[in-house]
Amino acid sequence: MMKDHRRGEATENKPLDQILEEELKSHLLQDIALLCMDYITPSSYDRSLTEYWNKNVGPSGCATFVRALPSLNISSLNLEHNDVSFEDVQAFARIMPYTRITDLNLGHTEIESKDVAMLAAALPRSCVAKLSLESNVMDAEGVKALAQAVTSSTNLTALNLARNHIDDRHCFVLADAAQRSLNFKSLNLCQNKIKKAGCLALLNAPLRSLDLSNNQFGEDVGSSLANLNNPHLTILDLGGNPLGNIGCRVLAGGLKNLSTLGLASTEMDRTGVEALTNHLPRAKFLRSLALGHNNFGFGGVSALASILPNTQITTLNLCGSCINNALCSILAKTLPHTQLRNLFLYENDIGDAGCTALASALPHTHITTLDLSCNHIRHTGCSALASALPNTHITTLDLGMNNIDNTGCSALAGVLPNTQLTTLSLYHNEIGSAGGKFLARVLPHSKSLTSLDLQQNYLVDEGVIALAEVLPKSPVTKLYLGENLFGDAGCTALARVVPRCWLTHLDLSENKIGDDGASALALGLPGSYLTDCNLRMNDITTVGATHLASALGRSGLVRLDIRFNRICSKGRAYLKYALPSIRVY
Description:
single chain; alpha/beta; 23 helices; Leucine-rich repeat, LRR (right-handed beta-alpha superhelix); 20-stranded parallel beta sheet
């Protein structure tokens, strides 16, 4: 029996419509929050609770919810993008020392420095190790309070203050706190207002990980980084700052302790890359390098390609770097002699010729993750890549946003069972129902593939039905079919097999699914493994929403996105009220 904790009266004998009408009229959000507790036992770890609160809790609901936290075994709590008031923060700060929360996200909640001060005072007495306050309204008072918490807390190790208008003065306070803390190791200050002085203060603090990307310092910082010798700092991101060739050239001398370096969008060209590559062989610990969104040209790519075999780099990101087929061919020739495991070349222009050059080199490399999305690859390049795949170690392949048609899809499908692929992304291509049928024929024989992304293609009902028929024989757990021009017939085919397959994530967004498809899906939910279902931007009305609501209590869903349909506010409330622990958009 479900009870109304505020009034103490049983709701079992009331029609759900009547209960909802009462709640909607009185706006008693705390009642919905309290009803959620009927589904959670103090000894259970209910991950769905964390999912639900994101974007669904109003001011009174949050305050009511926090009172139950000490009795729940929750270690990670995400309250991002919620309407959190001063009173909510006050209640949470009071209760935080008595919870088991180690990872707390309060990003995008518009909390101010007075709110932060209350949280900071409670941090030393809590279990919180990671705290995110991204995109809030922070001033000197809030930063000072957090700095005090950093110094006093024995558990706090990581702090995310990205997008908070933090300037050099605040950096000095944080750097000093890091100096006096024994455990604080990670600081994210991306997209703030930090200039040279603040940057240098933080670079000399005993931090292991520092993100200063997209701030306001430039090549003037470079001259001070030549002798950077911070033995603690291993992860550094300076991307999005106009360091230019001079800054990057001088910075290159201080790489010896870094394992991860981000220099994307730093206005570096051939000269800067050549200077940087001269120092790479001496960076013995460097494993990950991001140089995307710079324009190296022939000289820069040649310099990088020639030096990579002499490094220990395993992850290289060259996205958006104006790499064409000729430059890709230069890079491909050196790949077999490198230690690379992850290569990101998205948003370039390698085309079929560049893809073919890569395909010839891949069987001789150690690469497991390859991202070639948005590269103007057509069926010729795709076919060349497909021929090479069975002889590679690639497990994750992204070919989204290219020009791959049914012919290219057929080539990939033909070799799929002989590959090690676990994740295949073909979103935003030109694959039609025939391509869907090609994939359907081989899915039962592709024993490693667990994630398939076919969003923004042209499968229509025919292609979706073909895929649905083979899903029970496939290991796929994540299937993305958004924007594929299918309707109730395709959705109904999927709904019938959902209880008999391994799907946990299903994306059917931006199609033409109506109430018939939603009703069919409601019948399939209770017997399925689905935890995440996306029905955004379809043609579902309150009728279909009612059928879905009736199935939620018997399903394993923790997230249901049903935004931008034709469901009235009462229908949306019905969905949330049916099982409040599910996050409904």
